[in-house]
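FAQ: What does the model actually see?

It sees only this:
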Amino acid sequence: MERTLVRALIASAVCAGHAFADVNYSNNFQSGIAGPEWSHRHVETAPLGGQLFLGQFANDSVSLSLADVRRGEQVNLTFDFLAIRTWDGNDGGGGPGPDIFTVSIDSGPILLASTFSVGDPLSRHRMSYPDVAGVDAHPSRWGALYNDTLGYTYGPTNFPLDATWRMNFSFIAPADGLTIRFAALGLQDINDESWGLDNVHVSTSTVPTPGGMALTGAGLAALMRRKRR
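And it is asked to produce this:
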């Protein structure tokens, strides 16, 4: 009986030091559907390979609203950002720029505000990501997970121009209910510069309070004192 109780208390103590994650939202849009949680719901099929994603968008703000997230929970957000065609990155470098992509939380933090550039390896364009716009300058397509995999082209030569970045953010939910806003600024016509989202995943976790851990430890200590008598 006591051995079983010890095991239970030890398991409780181990769990008390870890967060428990719940998947609140996950969508790779392969069903072709973006639900009512999205402010914009257009799902497009990429010309090459048939990948489905949310988009295309231009100078738009697109929000994802999740009612079941609670204030104080840690939120983990992962998604793919698709930059399509002639993103110019920073101002200068032969393009009109700056072309900025942002991710922000209503009543909460700004997670991302960076410039992105999609050009050939010899492009003079520079981009700030993963730094804040205006802070640093990196080569075109810096840090991209995939390049020219979607099949979008530009100009009379049909030069391939698209890049995909995998984004990961963690933050504390500022209120009950969560709204994540994705937006682009400074882009030209949607047939020239556009963007999309894919593989959007949101999970939350709650770390037990120190008081809960202390109670578990007190239970173990009391049981050990009892065994020594």
